[in-house]
Amino acid sequence: MASEPIPIVGGTGALGAGLATRWAQAGAPVVLGSRSAERAAEAAAKLREKVPGAQVEGLLNEEAARAAGIVFLTVPFRAQSENLNNLREALRPGQILVDCTVPLAAAVSGKATRSLGVWQGSAAQQAQEMVPEGVPVVAALHTIGAPTLADPDAKLDEDILVCGDRKADKARVARLIELIPGLRAVNAGSLEMARIVEQLTPMLISVNVRYKAHAGIRLTGLPEDDHWS
Amino acid sequence: MASEPIPIVGGTGALGAGLATRWAQAGAPVVLGSRSAERAAEAAAKLREKVPGAQVEGLLNEEAARAAGIVFLTVPFRAQSENLNNLREALRPGQILVDCTVPLAAAVSGKATRSLGVWQGSAAQQAQEMVPEGVPVVAALHTIGAPTLADPDAKLDEDILVCGDRKADKARVARLIELIPGLRAVNAGSLEMARIVEQLTPMLISVNVRYKAHAGIRLTGLPEDDHWS
Could you give the count of Cα atoms lying within 13 Å of B44 in the half-sphere of its Cβ? Predict the structure, then answer.
């Protein structure tokens, strides 16, 4: 697992680039996917500058998605369906797709403090409907702020709520999340719980505006031991 | 404010009794409301036993609701509408109603890890529609567990997300919440944000089952200073 790269579809966007920064800092190899091979290569070069020694490659999204068993999708909601359509030929049964999409009303020029209703219940459930048979979707990383991730000096101190229908899949994703210091992955339940977890983002955005802050979520009162093993 | 009691409509229920325990411990006078005067008196006697020196009175809900300017409604979703109907004659313009209702699917014999869609968007917005003109609704205290509150030895360590349309109203409610050691009141935005905050409870219930825990919510990354003043 340690040597398998982490492919990020939408890796040139704010969340994708932020995650890539942290994984690169942690010594994990990363593949940045983009719709444009040029932009992917540029983003990879930028990351190597930012994090000396970063193991990073820039590829087309579809190529990035073939690079490893766990693929992160970090595009805005507006682009989620299009990206999932494009990934249909790339994803193979047994891969896991980690959907980080938040259905902010901003996708249709509404407010970032409001959300859209997704027919399936959540963006993650929409993703589950669109991926090829045999590709489980895990939902995670909705509540972490891209600016905080992208600032290599900012200290992280928050939980990542992970939703999915199989604990084994969530555990594999949790291991990747917890490569990033300051993040703890919490098992937030089945994929349908993404209906709730995705909603935290507009609430946090409103808190951030009000407090001029970069707020994150922590769950208190959980046992200290590693529950993923 | 310090001498004005805290009326709790539904004060004999789990959440109401738990809050009453904590406020009594903090030296705040409490009025427990119930549909039955006998049960209200019994609950008050029980609280006096549990917290020696507790200033507590048991009254009918409608009488309790007249006891002070800020009234807490802590009944299950199933009983929310009925209680609000009964309070129509009791509440007066200028009072604040603090709605703590969570629309769990358990209200219709569904799961406590799922929620019901409320036409108005949230139970709190339903409450706002039902209270007399001039009574603002503030939504709070959805995510705190009744068992933790009721155990006087359990240490609290969590945030209470407070939603409402006027900051001044939320600040008054926040002062009462923060009488309880271990709780911090966070301004989570306008009343419509209750759509999101109420949803946290089914998610936490599912986490509690999975982790055999009493989880609470904390927002990290907020400034330390008191932002309510």
Answer: 21
Token pair of B213 as six digits: 């825990």
> A82 has which bridge partners?
none
> Which among B199, B160, B221 has a CA at the least distance from the CA of A216?
B221
| Per-residue pLDDT reduced to its tens digit, B166-188 | 999 999 999 999 999 999 999 99
Mean pLDDT of chain B: 96
| pLDDT average, residue stretch A184-188 | 98
- Could you identify the residue written with the tokens 């199933």? B78
User: How open is the CA angle B213-B218-B221, to the nearest 5 degrees?
Assistant: 145
User: Chain B window 182-201: which residues touch A at a Cβ cutoff of 8 Å?
Assistant: 186-189, 192-193, 195-197, 199-200
Exposure string for B25-60, b = 16+ CB within 10 A, e = fewer:
beebbbbbbbbeeeebeebbebbeebbeebbbbbbb
| Distances from the Cα of B159 to the Cα of A226, B74, B100, B185, angstroms | 24, 18, 14, 6
- Is B1's pLDDT higher than 60? no
Answer yes or no: do B189 and A207 touch at CB < 8 A.
yes
Contact of B119 with chain A, judged by CB distance below 8 Å, is answered with no
Mean residue pLDDT across chain A? 96
Cα(B140)–Cα(B193) distance, integer angstroms: 11
ipTM of predicted assembly, 2 dp = 0.92
Q: Which residues contact A107 (CB under 8 A, 6 or more apart)?
A: A76, A77, A78, A116
Question: What residues contact residue B4 under an 8 Å CB cut-off, 6+ apart?
Answer: B29, B68, B69
A203, B196 Cβ separation under 8 angstroms? yes
Q: How confident is the model at residue A227 (pLDDT cuts 50, 70, 90)?
A: confident
Q: Which helix (H) or strand (E) holds A197?
A: helix A194-197
Q: Does B157 touch chain A (CB under 8 A)?
A: yes
Do A220 and B193 make contact, defined as CB atoms within 8 angstroms?
Answer: no
Question: Is A219's CB within 8 Å of B221's CB?
Answer: no
SS3 B209: helix
pLDDT in tens, A140-165: 999 999 999 999 889 999 999 999 99
Picking from B157, B199, B220, the nearest residue to A199 by CB comes out as: B199
Structure confidence by residue, pLDDT tens digits, B184-219: 999 999 999 999 999 999 999 999 999 999 999 999
Hey, is A57 helix, strand or coil? strand
pLDDT in the model for residue B2: 52
